[in-house]
Amino acid sequence: MLLHPAYKLTIGEKIVDTTDEPQASTLVSLSVTLDMDVPVDGFRLVLGQVGGFQPQRGDDARIELGFRDDELTQVMAGQVFSADDGLTRRRLVGHSPFQALVDGISAQTYENKTAGEIVRALADENGVTTSRIEDGIRFPAYVIHPRISAYHHMRELASLCGFDLYCDSEGELVFARFQRGEAIHIFDYSKQIIELEFLHTAPAAGEVQAWGESPGSNGGEQAWAWLVKDFSSQRGSAGTGAPLLLLERPALRTGDAARAAAEALQQHLNRQTLRGELLSTGQPKLKLGDAIQLRGLPEASLDDTYQVRRVEHRIDKTNGFTTRIGFRALTV
User: Fold this and answer.
1) ∠ CA 125-97-30 to the nearest 5 degrees?
2) Residue 267 has pLDDT above 90, yes or no
3) What torsion, rounded to 10 degrees, do the Cα atoms 256, 259, 265, 266 define?
4) Of all helices (H) and strands (E), which one includes residue 160?
5) Which end of the chain is more exposed for a tag (fewer CB within 10 A), N or C?
6) Cβ 195 vs Cβ 281: under 8 Å
7) Entry pTM
8) Is 60 exceeded by the pLDDT of residue 224?
């Protein structure tokens, strides 16, 4: 059956819906890029200069994708960041709400707060709505300084806790540990897969040691500000063997926090040893936070479930609707 790509663009007060009016849009190309390892997700639209559709910088935007005769799926919410006019075409670039976190800076100290509580406070301060936030490590003290943005503080907290930090399709913040995926999408060899590549690398470390600052739990939670000569009881360790990787963060002021951070980093390094990229026909329902299951591959050992880390949807007049997926291993 021949599939006909369809989309609905809601930008400002204007709605372009090809399922309602097939000739409504003068779209030349559309791309939406969602990436856990990039601060801000984005979209790019190229439109013909006809029909009076004139989106402006700052307009709210929602993008829904799918196929004719099927229900469309919202893949992104954000704002128009730039709008450039040419003689025959108009180019739009839009960003997710995380742009506010990249631009936001503040200076404050949180005492006896979990990572999730700190992330929620930073999101509220910068006007970003939240979806799912887990607690993670509890910090006796955590300093937010203006040398880096609110986003980069959140990213550091996510790294220490072993959590994912991303913007969902509704434009809301997610700060949580990946388990098995919000949904699992099946991809069979020679069916949904157009291109598939794997990258195998050696682990960056055999053992990870995490070190903090102060005696922390040696003298109780209230002793985090003390100075000490021997940090051994506050050291966190995960994995075995060479090479050894040291993680030094002043915020890891208790033994529990150091151990949790070491385990999180060691798991991250292990999962990075097997990564890949898959090109498929359009998959509008596939999102960050999901997993994919590969089946029937020529190398049977690669038939497994993987975490989705990057999604790029593209619609153009040459290739139709395609989705490119970046993924990594769950277990190694």
Assistant:
1) 175
2) yes
3) -150
4) helix 150-161
5) N
6) no
7) 0.90
8) no
